[in-house]
Amino acid sequence: MTPSNGIAIKPWSTSEAPKVIWWDLWGTIARSDNREPILHLQRILKLHTDTIDLRNIKSVDPDFLKVCLTTNIPHPNRKGEQDPVGFLRAVARPFNLSVEPEMVPEFSEVTHKESQCVLLFVDSRKVLKKLKAAGFNHGLISNLWGFPVKALFDEESLGKFIPEELRVYSFEEGFAKPDIRLFRRACERAGVKPEDCLMIGDHLENDILPARELGMRTVLIDREHVYSPEEVPADTLHIDKMETLLDYLPVDPNV
Asked: Cβ(155)–Cβ(55) under 8 Å?
């Protein structure tokens, strides 16, 4: 893959550098070997079980997915964690589902496995470190339920690069990408204009298009070559590895 989608995108100068670099999480800076925990929860709650294929994460019910990604039930005793029992009841309610006692340990096993399977991509830490050393501010705009947050920011040390006040989660805000409100909320949180931001993600519809609509500059990281150059907007930098980003931002190569 060429560094861009056929359009000559020039490196940004220091004066053109974004005030905040917003990152997508899954597929961009981190991944999980637990394929789709929300799909497993759908199976546990026995919602549309005839359509579930645990080998195909796209078989998750879209309405159920949205509810899971926009539900926030903080744990009453453990700061920064979710209450699994309260969460189960909250996501079951809109679908008129019953929460049986045996479902609770099953769900706890799902969230435990997810937290054990969260990993950063090999190049993520290197690039984040270099950009932070160069003075860039990092933020996160993520479709996420609250269960892996502690593992991501405590054990994987993403907290070193992305301050808590610039982490914008769908489960806390109550709406999920591609809803443009999530991107607008991020700009409000950082006190910056959209045109002063750079959004980096791996999903055209969820990350790139709504960010562009709001006025952000965009970078599509396409590790698996999912998108053809013709699909990608001409003003979006289209790359297949994160390190290529360092060629386009004003970063001292010796840092």
From this structure: no
Amino acid at 245: L
- In CATH terms, 14-31+121-247 corresponds, of 3.40.50.1820, 3.30.565.10, 3.40.50.1000, 3.20.20.70, to 3.40.50.1000
114-117 long-range CB contacts below 8 Å, 24 or more apart? Answer: 114/32, 114/34, 114/37, 114/147, 114/148, 114/151, 115/147, 115/148, 115/150, 115/151, 116/34, 116/151, 117/32, 117/33, 117/34
With 80 as the cut, is the pLDDT of residue 170 above it? yes
Report the SS3 class of residue 27.
coil
CA nearest neighbour of 145 among 203, 214, 71, 208: 71
The ranges assigned to domains in the chain are: 14-31+121-247, 37-116
100-123: pLDDT as tens digits: 999 999 999 999 888 888 888 989
pTM of the shown model: 0.92
User: What is the rounded average pLDDT of the residues 152-180?
Assistant: 90
Q: What is the mean pLDDT of the chain?
A: 91
